[in-house]
Amino acid sequence: MANHKVTVLVAGSWGTALAAVLADNDHQVKLWTRNSEQAQEINGARKNMRFLGEAALPEGIEATTDLAEALKGAEAVVFVAPSAAMREIAKLAAPYISEHTCCIHATKGFETDSLKRMTTVLAEELHRKEEELVVLSGPSHAEEVVRKQPTTVVVASSNQEAAEYAQDLFINSYFRVYTNPDVIGVEVAGAIKNIIALGAGLSDGLGFGDNAKAALITRGLAEIGRLGSAMGANMLTFAGLAGIGDLIVTCTSQHSRNWRAGSMLAKGLAVEEVLKQMGMVVEGIRTTRAAHVLAEQYDVPMPITEQLYQVLFASKPPKQAVEDLMGRGRTHEIEEVAKSWGLHQSEPPVI
């Protein structure tokens, strides 16, 4: 692919890692941050110590605090702001983005107050149709990507041309990219898996074993599928990289912020203390609040999400939450999945 001018907003761990992938592909990469010291560190030492430690960044990344300069001439913009800041960043960036610029986001979460997906938020602030936008998601720890460890993700858009353009921007020998037309499914899976990862960290923090984690991941996938089905997703998405792939990596790795936050909650720390000690955004906490409301809105059962909501926002003891999950009424697995996912029992459930 020809060399392109690409801007990444903002310079957190994932934004920086994606900027590194783009620079490795010989694109001209501008990485925007509000922090002048961080910009100087990236440009001088070729490191982002706060988010990625000693990992070396390629020379092709130029960090800047000037948003207008960062976006000047950009052929593609990659939004990697936290979900709570996405609307603000998009609004600031909108005046400097051409109508021909490909806009991609790689943020996993919902807007807490409006419950909107990130694609919807971007479409509103950039005055674009959702069909023009692309979402990048999948099992991808920034710490591994920046070290060029093999990683595979998806780019989703109902516009195949836009998806293939994004695919070509990112794909290389260590970062494999598939396309997927199911934006809703990819965004729902990416958001809800953070909740399940909180639960996995909590389970490990309580000293439970692999049996508990396997059950949590499997039943968590069922919850993702229920909500996704109600919102209009393609069920096959949840059997792929954005679904089960991302769920596994986030629930089983100590790189995962959400796993670490859940583990700390299990040890009795309050949410505020967990966030203070982490020093970084934990999307699963915000998403739990949003998903709690969405489950009621779409009338779908999400028992793991409900118990985590009680732990996070109603001071429920983690161990009691696990006991309540295990003590739920008996049910038939295939029957329940078929009903929740809108399948006939004669069809194999995608799980």
TrEMBL record:
Residues 1-19 form the signal peptide. PROSITE patterns: NAD_G3PDH (PS00957). Residues 5-163 form the Glycerol-3-phosphate dehydrogenase NAD-dependent N-terminal domain. NADPH binds at residues 13-14, 34, 108, 142, 257, 281, 283. The active site is at 193 (proton acceptor). The keyword Ribosomal protein does not apply. NAD(+) binds at residues 142, 257. GO terms for molecular function: glycerol-3-phosphate dehydrogenase [NAD(P)+] activity; NAD binding. Pfam families: NAD_Gly3P_dh_C (PF07479), NAD_Gly3P_dh_N (PF01210). Pathway: Membrane lipid metabolism; glycerophospholipid metabolism. Sn-glycerol 3-phosphate binds at residues 108, 138, 140, 193, 246, 256-258. Transmembrane segments: none annotated. Keywords: Cytoplasm, Lipid biosynthesis, Lipid metabolism, NAD, NADP, Nucleotide-binding, Oxidoreductase, Phospholipid biosynthesis, Phospholipid metabolism, Signal. Substrate binds at residues 108, 257-258. It catalyses: sn-glycerol 3-phosphate + NADP(+) = dihydroxyacetone phosphate + NADPH + H(+); sn-glycerol 3-phosphate + NAD(+) = dihydroxyacetone phosphate + NADH + H(+). Its EC number is 1.1.1.94. Gene3D superfamilies: N-(1-d-carboxylethyl)-l-norvaline Dehydrogenase, domain 2 (1.10.1040.10), NAD(P)-binding Rossmann-like Domain (3.40.50.720). The keyword NAD applies. Belongs to the NAD-dependent glycerol-3-phosphate dehydrogenase family. Catalyzes the reduction of the glycolytic intermediate dihydroxyacetone phosphate (DHAP) to sn-glycerol 3-phosphate (G3P), the key precursor for phospholipid synthesis. This is Glycerol-3-phosphate dehydrogenase [NAD(P)+]. It comes from Paenibacillus abyssi.
